[in-house]
Amino acid sequence: MAVDLVYESHSTTTDNEAGIATGWLQGHLSELGRRQAAELGERRRGGGFAAVFTSDLHRAVETAAIAFPDGLPPAHQDRRLRECDYGELNGCPTAHVAARRTACLDEPFPGGQSYRQVVRATADFLQDLAAAHDGRRILLIAHSANRWALDCLLTGVPLEEILRSPPAWRPGWHYALPTGWQPPHL
Question: Is the N end or the C end of the chain the one with fewer CB atoms within 10 Å?
Fold first, then answer.
């Protein structure tokens, strides 16, 4: 058996619309983002999810709360699903952060973390998820860095490649988390 994992990005925030890289700042959904969250709920309702796991940052929690206002499936927040901490660059223009992305593969953003640290946190989360939810379908609502970590950990795409050319956004990504999954050497 395996965990059937569906990933969705949090909905559009006011920072996204303003070209701001929110990082570990909380962020709030825009009007468009609230509509997207409701659409996510319509798209995923009846999807057979045992649970929803979100980052503990407001924009991910808000997305889940709007998508599933009745609390079904149950939602759980996990700090390990946070966006990359851009440190001193949290709240800076997205273009400024994107220009430093590959340099922060292993070297943390000033006062923040590296993308490799995000991959390790996501791997730790996945190990716990595989142990507790084998054979179930789980929805994750998180951030770009977590999706990139999933691609790296579960499909084998090198993190360096992902950071050089991030995949385009789309609604919904599917992954299989095998029983007994162990992270690759990071």
Answer: N
Q: What does the pLDDT read at residue 186?
A: 66
The label of the residue with tokens 């999807």 reads 47
Query: Where does the pLDDT of residue 1 fall: very low under 50, low under 70, confident under 90, or very high at 90 and above?
Result: confident
Asked whether the beta carbons of 146 and 140 are under 8 A apart, the reply is yes
For the chain, state the CA radius of gyration.
Answer: 16
DSSP state of 166: P
Q: Is the pTM of this model over 0.90?
A: yes
- Give the separation between CA 125 and CA 30, rounded to whole angstroms: 28
Q: Are 60 and 144 in contact (CB under 8 A)?
A: no
Task: Break the chain down into helix, strand, coil percent, rounded to 5.
Answer: 45, 20, 40
∠ CA 44-51-9, rounded to 5°: 55
CATH topology of domain 2-178: Rossmann fold (3.40.50)
Q: Which helix (H) or strand (E) holds 4?
A: strand 2-9
In 38-85, which ranges are E strands?
Answer: 51-54, 75-77
pLDDT digits (tens, 9 = 90+) for 156-171: 999 999 999 998 888 8
